[in-house]
Amino acid sequence: MSPKTLYDKIWNDHVAHEADDGTCLLYIDRHLVHEVTSPQAFEGLRVAGRSVHAPDKTIAVPDHNVPTTLDRQKGIDNEESRIQVETLDKNAEDFGIHYYPVDDIRQGIVHIVGPEQGWTLPGMTVVCGDSHTATHGAFGALAHGIGTSEVEHVLATQTLIQKKSKNMKVEVTGKLKAGVTAKDITLTVIGQTGTAGGTGYVIEYSGEAIRSLSMEGRMTVCNMAIEGGARAGLIAPDEKTFEYCKGRPHAPKGAAWETAELYWKTLFSDEDAVFDKVLTIKGEDIAPVVTWGTSPEDVLPVTATVPRPEDFEGGKVEAVKRSLEYMGLIPGMPLSEVKIDTVFIGSCTNGRIEDLRAAAEVLRGKKVKDGLRCMIVPGSGLVRAQAEEEGLAEIFLDAGFEWRLAGCSMCLAMNPDQLSPGERCAATSNRNFEGRQGRGGRTHLMSPAMAAAASLTGYLTDIRKLKHN
Amino acid sequence: MEKFNSLTGVAAPLPLINTDTDMIIPKQFLKTIKRTGLGVNLFSEMRYKDDGSEKPDFILNQKAYRDTQVLVAGENFGCGSSREHAPWAINDFGIKCIIAPSFADIFYNNCFKNGILPIVLPPEEVDVLMKDAEKGSNARISIDLETQTVTSSEGVAFKFKVDSFRKHCLMNGLDDIDLTLEKQTSIQNFEQQAAVSRPWV
Q1: What are the chain B neighbours of A147 within 8 Å (beta carbons)?
Q2: What is the mean pLDDT of chain A?
Q3: What is the structure's pLDDT at B138?
């Protein structure tokens, strides 16, 4: 048998039909659904008189629109947002799918809820009408975002029409230095590949630095595979993966677990497997990074200076001019002198318990800089509960952070959590596009520890220097 | 789905690289539960001032391009969010074809589900069409899906590639779900096998 990559193996185990031209029907094991990209799909089913093919494999949770303020039981003020959430409530009931409504403690960002509840398991195919579905690749599951027409297709048939992508390996060797996190890895990779470097590929992340990450860290890495243009990101499952999954509500139990684990242990790229593209990065070369522009590829170590448009080539020259104007930055300015107004810690990239612990470690016993607006939005109700149990919430509140309820919040600002024009934010989310966090808002992406550090100084801050002080 | 066979018309130049789906349709317009009516919000933040009036400089606000059916764009068009609201807005505006050196994966897929033809051409060929598009109403570009050809206003023709299955669906306006349901037996067979080999799923 010819050697196979992890992606090859998962793909092969899910092809329900293959046409002569290579167009496949890929079987979907888990379909995650949220309120923004699903209403038109359910409506399509109704119009055609179709049902959901596999309601037991379909899991819905509202996250994009939900308020994260403590008074949210009073309902959603914005009428359109309210209708969208109510539409999901109704669709979940009408079509008989698993559902975590707004008032359920298990509610949260769909990509945090899936793994937390044990829906996401190694070797599965997972899709959702959301590009950050790549997150679930951390379990060695083939997971990617789809559009609403495809959401309807999966609801109706439990399959997707797909052609196979190419294989890309991103190997991060060695050990990370102090202050460097999973977020720095994933941003550094995008900085090197560019936002289109992964287009047409499924990326497998490997190497000692990836292996040494926790499951939370691995989810952060895979989450941003889409920002590198890849269809999906994957990390081969190992003992850490099994340990994370074991005992979760929807993970297999007893003998079923034993059988599953045997299969999961076959999920790795064979030694001689061929990758179409390989990128190797030394873990010790990665620094704590921030983004300076309006594309996630605009990444630099926090110790660097704002670049000049003429440092780039082709269409990027104009793009950088536009970015710098939008971001209000001057070439040559040290990034550490960039003053911020707001700090947002949360999102499907960095809203898990480990992210909150990292922020709390920086904030313990300290106060945020006067005048800053700082919020922490846990990724799920259960993350919030755990953070309260561990005493993290108290640290955040004492430091001057708002301690919110779970949701997507200011990552994409569909709910009231938004930036004002010109407001500059240190954010742990995944996109720094123009207007992403609110019209005219300026976003710098970074790790939770770096965002916490920025909240203390009021500037983009090198976490390593803060620690030395 | 609407069919796409051929069209001839003015093309609008949008030379930006990495045009993301937040630019194409900002989040405040994702709260709809319908697929229609988003054309007015296409490129909203680039197209309108804070008071809601048009920015005269923006390409689609210029007289020659107000009814354009073709967009010529920079690389990695449609990156970012998976929101199908992006092609819905493009389609609702009246744009049926986008030509660029590269597209983001999910956006590219979404176009085909909505009767929009995304065409990938080498950068130097896109440059020729971009310059053509800049001539405004004096220049009309032709696209023919059957022969997989784009022809500039000066008669320069470029061949493009497109997946044969997608071409077939687009030319005949076929619904994916109907096509897949014809293979229901394969799906059921797969499910029976998987119930044995991976029962925990």
Answers
A1: 82-84, 87, 106, 109-110, 113
A2: 97
A3: 86
The alpha carbon of residue A369 is apart from the nearest alpha carbon of chain B, in Å, by 30
What's the CA angle centered on B78, arms B76 and B82, to 5 degrees?
130
- A32-46, pLDDT tens digit by residue? 999 999 999 999 999
Interface of A with B in 57-96 (CB under 8 A): 57, 64-65, 78, 80-81, 83-84, 87
Please state, in angstroms and rounded to a whole number, the distance separating the CA atoms of residues B85 and A259.
42
- The answer to whether A80 and A53 have CB atoms below 8 angstroms apart is no
By CA distance, what is B188's nearest residue in A?
A16
Place of tokens 């297709």: A153
State ipTM: 0.95
CA distance A450 to chain B (A): 24
- Give the mean model confidence (pLDDT) for residues A215-239: 98
Segment A403-462, tens digit of pLDDT = 999 999 999 999 999 999 999 999 999 999 999 999 999 999 999 999 999 999 999 999
DSSP 8-state assignment for residue A369: P
Distances in whole angstroms, Cα of residue B132 to Cα of each of B71, B128, B135, B144, B150: 12, 6, 6, 17, 12
Is it the case that residue A104 has pLDDT exceeding 60? Answer: yes
Q: Are A360 and A354 in contact (CB under 8 A)?
A: no
pLDDT digits over B120-145, tens only? 999 999 999 999 999 999 889 999 99
Q: Is the pLDDT of residue A469 over 80?
A: no
B157 burial level (CB within 10 Å; 0-12, 13-18, 19+) = exposed
Q: How far is CA A226 from CA A145, A210, A220, in A?
A: 9, 18, 12
Q: Of A287, A282, A153, A296, give the one whose Cα is nearest residue A225.
A: A296
A232 near A135, Cβ under 8 Å?
Answer: no
Task: Report the alpha-carbon distance of residue A84 to residue A66 in Å, rounded.
Answer: 10
Q: How confident is the model at residue A272 (pLDDT cuts 50, 70, 90)?
A: very high
Residue of B nearest to A256 (CA): B200
Q: How many CB atoms lie within 10 A of CB A54?
A: 18
**CB within 8 Å of chain B, chain A residues 184-203:** 195-196, 199-200
Structure tokens at A108: 């949260």
Cβ A22 vs Cβ A164: under 8 Å:
yes
Top pLDDT among A467 and A139 is at A139
**Rounded Cα–Cα distance for residues B97 and B67 (Å):** 13
d(CA B162, nearest CA chain A) in Å: 13
